[in-house]
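Example with several molecule types.
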Amino acid sequence: MRGHFHACAFVRGPEEERSIIEPFFVEGMKRGEKAVYIVDPEHRARHDEALRELAPKDELLDVTTWDEAHLKGGRFDAERMMALLEEVITAHAAMGNPPMRLVGQMGWVFSEPPGIEDLLAYEATVNEVLNRGKTPTVCVYDVTRLRGSMVMDLLRAHPLTIMNGVLHENPFYTPAPQMLSEIQSRREARAS
Amino acid sequence: MTGSVAQVSELQSCIRDLLSLLALPSLWSGREPREVAALLFDSLRAILPIDFAYVRVGQPGSDEEVELLQLGDRDETLRATELLSSLGAARTGGGTIPDGPLRGGHVFHVPLGWYGGTGELLIGSRHPEFPTPIHVVLIRAASSLLQGGIQTANLNRASVAASRAKDEFLAMLGHELRNPLSPIVSALELLKNRDSQSKEVVIIERQLQRVLNLVDDLLDIARITRGKVELHKTPVELATIIGGAVEMTAVLIAEQRHSFSVDVPSSGLVVDADPMRLTQVVSNLLSNAAKYTPPGGHIRIAAKASNEQIDLAISDTGVGIPKQQLPTIFDLFVQGKTTIHRREGGLGIGLAVVKNLVQMHGGTVEASSEGPGKGSEFRIRLPRSKQSASRPPPPVAGLPGPAAARHRILVVDDNQDAAELLTEVLRLEGHEVEFALDGGQALEKLSSFRPSVAILDIGLPGLDGYELADRVRAQLAPHSVTLIALTGYGQAHDRERSRRAGFAVHLVKPIDLRSLITALP
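Resulting structure tokens for the full complex:
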């Protein structure tokens, strides 16, 4: 995967998501890699039960919610979220553990919480954090609810995408500094 | 060199955006043609400096066109005539736009279809350099995707319409099949009264039950796929459901000499379920296990609970399921090459009904098997109820004995066989019975025969059962009459309509004669 650890998965519903995420986690857990799943709070118990059956050891699985991660404090704070990721990844590695595997459901974006305007910048910049920590991470979006422009922006920001269950590499993805510059230009254009 | 670096960078961005455009077809699923166009325009605005987008495309086999005009991200299709005319010659011939909100800008025109006969795509921009070669590449790629996307949307629409037509047909077929089954059921009751031990009667009864089950399955799947099944949920112990299902399949399991084990707690596993429908699910799976296990096999039901869900597994030592069939085993009308359904008969509906009903209860169902000859397991997961189970209903009464009271009964059904046979059955029960074949005949009969009970087919020609009910009551007044409805429709709104029309009882064809006899006052 040429040094990239951050993929964006476009899925059509929970069954397709499960078909992608389960093998990803199970493969990792069999190698002793912790699985961290950030999910919709409404379905946390269901995801936990389903994956716990497949976990070789309980401590290899951590199912948490986006209220405790992306939307802690009731808003999306990109910097806080990146700092949290960096802290968790570093602490985990410091204990001599193999890198964890992270999956984050992104359904919360459709509620348009405060701070949502920083999502794209976050998606672009978090690549650096995940590459440094060599932490395979998948952000899961329900493609049936996405606008075309958001799909285009997400595709540009991710070096790896999963579409129709297939992993694609985008060698010309937009590096974070260029993406941030484009976002800034758009904001200035809208303001004028 | 700087120029070259800039060009290389621009080309790389173009390739990146082209790859992104190529990913868009994954968004088309389930979309209408106009939505596809809107999605594409929205995507183009993310990568190109466009201010205006317009598409007009004919629909194959139809006079309808897909048309969408967006100014920025605003839908201005209603102003299409005005805005398009403001483009002037720039619309197709180049040059700057002379008038309107895009005055001074440029248009890139792409004919769609053979010789532009199908339609056109127009992309307009006030950007001074529009359209550059890069812009042209991306717009041409987008136009191909747009045509493909609209075609996909049209095919989806046709597929949905065909599926709806199929569901309507199934529903009609089920109802039409029910009508002739009613007199057959009545005739069989009469035959059994004369000679219940006859081999022919036993065979007819068994095969008739199979036909009834097939018709019920057909009607069920037609109702489920049209969203017409209503669940009446109540907290119920899983053990109660399993008990009911085992009772329904006990004879089949015993006939096949299977051994049977149940590992289900008698209490503490409560689900919010429609008891009848969930029992149907479990009995379908038990019935399959019994049918697809060679005689002398073993069937097991086991259930356990966690905090949030209940896990129910039905396993057997039967013929198993080939791996390649597992992904489609719950699909409608699936007939595997090993004819897992065909060998035992059936339409391939039962498992589709199971899956739909389980999903309607908020659960999931999976099938697994090690392969042919190695048995199967069906696992259902259901959300656990947070409430205690409701009190179970009183046990169903046993078969009725001879009528406690003798009634004068009028039977009205336009199916002569059904009317005559039902009349005969009721006479054997000791009642005085007359029949009529339509509303007019029934009303004439009332002048010489005053019934205390009137059994009316709802679907009568001319005067239907509801109107006839009104006339019968009026004609017999002040004497009261108990009205019983016979109909092929048994949904809640059908029963409510019967109740409002004054019917005391609503029976669905083919009627269970025991239920009818029990329903008599």
